């Protein structure tokens, strides 16, 4: 099967000892672990936060929206501002902002300042994931780039198993402020790990906001982002109402839902582990299969939600399929953004948060219309089908085009590398979309 990768002589020799590579990826995973913990722990602590700042629980729920708004705004804004900043330095600055945002959340004396602090904490979220994905793809051989990117997503999935339950328990027993303090400490650990373990990666001479914006104008990038918003909207239509589904229809007690959510996180972890090697081998087929299986799982959950064991199995599978889609979407955006992938990679997480908002809204509409607590599953399946349609459309439009490249070194294209073989300048070219995988 043709790989579609450039000739071996265009690849960048490793500039760091091989043993440091997994540790550098671990440092990036620590960052995403902190992000996942702070994003989702808030949902479990809304009653405590509401009591602490003197507002109702529904009003406190706006804090979740504040964080999501920060992600949507911050991903393109901060990657644009930092378009010429070396990636390691940018990672350190963004992680520092993450620590400041969570420290401010812990110290906020009233709801208004807490709302502002949660918005601030959300600003670096997408940019950290986007820059981290580009950095991760440069730390390994081109044919393992998706595996490297999937490893940083592991931090997010493990946060759902360990970080969120632990943060929720800490906030419930000691006070919600302690949960944000703990996340700030995780951020400091990540900051130290990044400083020690991630190698310096200079930007190319052409790097800048204009180049990043030009890459965002690529129609395949637009379709990829639309696929993320619509396809993941189906995922979030169900995730947003998973707890009331389990308590009202499955008969699981409120006290047990935390463990079910951890099981959901286990599924996400398994899906993330599968996503890396599958995406490296066949990007578009992995994306298509993941969306199809996600839609099928959502339809299945509509029927299995009334029985405990089938419901738990289906929930785990939904988590796995949702996570399976994440890596191919991320890689597809980076590939089609060519030599300016950072803003596209970061904007993917803006798209995820838009999907979160849209999915929750549509799921709430059918519940309010009296269709029942299981109805969001059908909404999710429809959205997954629409996402599949967008993904296939992108694949059909991509047929016949020359393979795209992501330049993950110092901005040298393949043709430049071939014309200056003795120049000493080197670049690692991340995976090219295999010709066999197109469409």
From TrEMBL:
It comes from the Bacteria. The chain crosses the membrane at residues 64-83, 90-109, 115-140, 152-171, 177-200, 221-243, 255-275, 287-305, 311-333, 354-373, 379-397. Pfam families: MFS_1. This is MFS transporter. Its main location: membrane. SUPFAM superfamilies: MFS general substrate transporter (SSF103473). Coiled coil: none annotated. GO terms for molecular function: transmembrane transporter activity. The keyword Transmembrane helix applies. It is found in: Cell membrane. PROSITE patterns: MFS. Gene3D superfamilies: MFS general substrate transporter like domains (1.20.1250.20). Keywords: Cell membrane, Membrane, Transmembrane, Transmembrane helix. Residues 22-399 form the Major facilitator superfamily (MFS) profile domain. It is a multi-pass membrane protein. GO terms for cellular component: plasma membrane. CDD domains: MFS_NepI_like. Residues 402-439 are annotated as: Disordered. It comes from Streptomyces fuscichromogenes.
């Amino acid at each position: 099967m043709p790989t579609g990768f450039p000739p071996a002589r265009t690849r960048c020799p490793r500039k760091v000892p091989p043993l440091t590579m997994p540790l550098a990826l671990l440092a990036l995973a620590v960052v995403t672990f902190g992000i996942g913990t702070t994003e989702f722990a808030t949902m479990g602590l809304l009653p405590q936060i509401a009591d602490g700042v003197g507002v109702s629980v529904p009003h406190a729920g706006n804090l979740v929206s504040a964080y999501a708004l920060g992600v949507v705004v911050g991903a393109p804004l901060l990657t644009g501002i930092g378009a010429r900043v070396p990636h390691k330095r940018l990672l350190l600055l963004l992680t520092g902002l993450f620590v400041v945002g969570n420290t401010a959340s812990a110290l906020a004396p009233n709801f208004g300042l807490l709302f502002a602090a949660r918005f601030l904490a959300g600003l670096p979220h997408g940019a950290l994931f986007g820059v981290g994905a580009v950095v991760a793809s440069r730390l390994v051989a081109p044919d393992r780039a998706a595996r490297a990117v999937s490893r940083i997503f592991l931090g997010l999935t493990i946060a759902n198993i360990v970080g969120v339950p632990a943060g929720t328990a800490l906030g419930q027993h000691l006070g919600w402020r302690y949960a944000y303090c703990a996340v700030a400490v995780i951020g400091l650990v990540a900051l130290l790990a990044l400083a020690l373990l991630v190698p310096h990666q200079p930007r190319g001479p052409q790097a800048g906001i204009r180049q990043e914006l030009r890459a965002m104008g690529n129609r395949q990038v637009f379709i990829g982002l639309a696929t993320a918003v619509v396809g993941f909207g189906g995922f979030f239509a169900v995730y947003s109402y998973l707890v009331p589904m389990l308590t009202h229809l499955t008969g699981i007690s409120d006290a047990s839902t935390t463990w079910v959510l951890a099981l959901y996180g286990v599924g996400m972890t398994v899906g993330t582990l599968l996503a890396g090697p599958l995406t490296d081998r066949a990007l578009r087929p992995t994306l298509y299969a993941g969306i199809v299986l996600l839609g099928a799982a959502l339809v299945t959950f509509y029927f299995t939600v009334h029985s405990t064991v089938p419901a738990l199995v289906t929930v785990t599978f939904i988590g796995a399929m949702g996570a399976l889609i994440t890596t191919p979407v991320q890689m597809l955006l980076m590939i089609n953004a060519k030599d300016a992938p950072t803003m596209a990679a970061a904007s993917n997480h803006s798209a995820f948060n838009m999907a979160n908002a849209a999915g929750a809204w549509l799921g709430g509409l059918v519940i309010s219309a009296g269709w029942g607590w299981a109805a969001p599953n059908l909404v999710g399946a429809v959205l997954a089908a629409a996402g599949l349609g967008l993904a296939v459309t992108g694949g059909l439009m991509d047929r016949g085009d020359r393979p795209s490249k992501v330049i993950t070194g110092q901005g040298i294209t393949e043709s430049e590398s071939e014309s200056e073989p003795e120049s000493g300048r080197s670049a690692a070219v991340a995976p090219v979309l295999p010709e066999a995988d197109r469409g």
